[in-house]
Structures are given as structure tokens and as C-alpha cells.
Amino acid sequence: MPESRRGVLYGIAAYAMWGLFPLYWPLLKPSGALEILAHRMVWSLVVVAAILVVRRHWSWFGELLRTPRKLGLLVLAAAVVTVNWGVYIYAVNTGHVVESALGYFINPLVSVLFGVFLLKERLRPLQWAAVGMGALSVVVLTVDYGRLPWIALVLAASFGTYGLIKKIAAVGAAESMTVETLVLLVPAFAYLVYLQVQGEGTFANAGAGHAFLLAGAGVITAVPLLCFTAAAIRVPLTTIGLLQYIAPVLQFLCGVFIAHEAMPASRWAGFAIVWLALSIFTWDSLRAARQARRVALRDLEPAGTPG
After folding, report:
1. Mean residue pLDDT across the chain
2. Cβ atoms within 10 A of the Cβ of 154, count?
3. What pLDDT digit, counting tens, does each position of 73-87 carry?
4. Quick one: CA dihedral 288, 294, 296, 299, positive or negative?
5. How buried is 276 (Cβ within 10 angstroms: 0-12 exposed, 13-18 middle, 19+ buried)?
């Protein structure tokens, strides 16, 4: 199989698994969102540490300790991803799957704004139009919900911030996740011990099947990440940009057709504006990528022979 096709399949697998997360977290009830979050941190560390042991890849750790800036960035990333994971689990287990999907739909637009204001990148006119429509959709959905869609905004902002930090840190996926979960291990494990001592923990009190599912949170966190990493090194970023919409589409479908969340006409209108904004954004990005490829190919052409 060609590497590019293999990369696309890895990408589809990663985003499909992320998109189906809303089906997993409800299985962990009666565990609360904080308990699930703590187990996810602990078991994710176990999984990625096992992967690194199999790969015999530990040399990076000493290098990282000698680079305080990168280490500090990963500590910050750990704090940000804690917010993202916690809010997402809360959203799914309290009947806000559709709103969480909105957060990941608007995430590319939030990332663009980060690029403008933090990395001093310049936007093309159609990109500005897409960002403006994204802002309009938030206004429409605020009116629809009767409140600011804070779950969507927190998820989009936290995931966008996480991506920005990881981009600056430039550390591999498994290595980065090892450090992030290691940072979170002490508070997460302490909280789980506290729950058990108080008799409120569910890991040892809700049966072996429940304990297995809680431990499985580490596997379902690590596997999509590894698939994404395998895809990212095999396919262009434009392809990754298209594949990323698989996750929120599946989340949205889970919310509407499986969780049966309400979708009044005003909410459909807000989502329609988001989807139109993303269509414009994606089309403009693909057009710019094609133009850049044409320019690069033209620059590689040999100069004509003088007459």
C-alpha cells in the first residue's frame, strides 16, 4: 500500500475514534467527570510509557530536562489539556454533545485567530470572511441557547491553545503525552486515593467491568494520538485539514441521532453558518495550497536555453 494512502487511513482512524468518544464516556457512569478525568490521566501515562518501553526510546527525556523552556511549555500544555478533557467529559455526560461538537467545528477558526494575534500571520480576505461568519454563528447560538455557548468556546480555545503550545514546543506525540500525564499524575492519583478513602470512588466498587472501562480510557486516549502522528508524517497538512472535520461531524451525529439532543430551527441555523464558514475556509486553503504548489513547480523548471 502506498504510504500516502496508508497515511489517509491512519488519519481517518484517528479522527473517527475521536468522533466516537461520546459513545464511550457515558459507559463510565456512575463515575463523575472529575473521577473519569483522573483515571484518563493515570491510565494514559501507563499506556504511553508502555509504548516507549517497547520502542526503547528514552534518550529524549534527558535532552528535555536540559531544555527548561520546552519542559515549561509541556507543563503548560498539561494544564490546558486538563481543561479540555474535563470540559469535554462533562459535556458528553450532561447531555451537551452537540455543543461540544460545535467547539471542534469552530476550532480551526480559533486557531487562525491565534495565528494572527500571536504569530503575526496575515489572513486572506476569504479567511477573514470565514472568521466573521464563525463569530456570527456564536451570536446566533447564544440567542438560541439563551446563554453563551461556553462549552463550545472553552473546548475550541483550549484545544487551539494546546495545539499552539505543542507547535512551539516541537516534541513528539508520545514523548509529549508522557511528560504531560506525568505532570498530572500526582494530583490525579491523589484525587483517586481520596475518593476511595471516602468511599466515593467507583473503580473498586462498581465491578470488574467498570474498572476495565476506566482503565480503557488510557487506551482510547493514546491509540488515536498515535494514529494521528502516523498520518501527519505521511500526508500533506491540507489533507489533515480536511480529515479533521470527521471528528466533529461524528460527534454531532452522536448528539442528534443517538443522544437525541434537541435541535430547534435556530440551532440548525447557527450550525449552518458554521458549516458555510468552514466550507469557505477549506476552499480558500485548498486554493492557496494549489497556487503554492504551482509556484514551486514553476521555480523548479529549468531556465530556457538562450537563442
Report:
1. 87
2. 19
3. 999 999 998 999 999
4. negative
5. middle
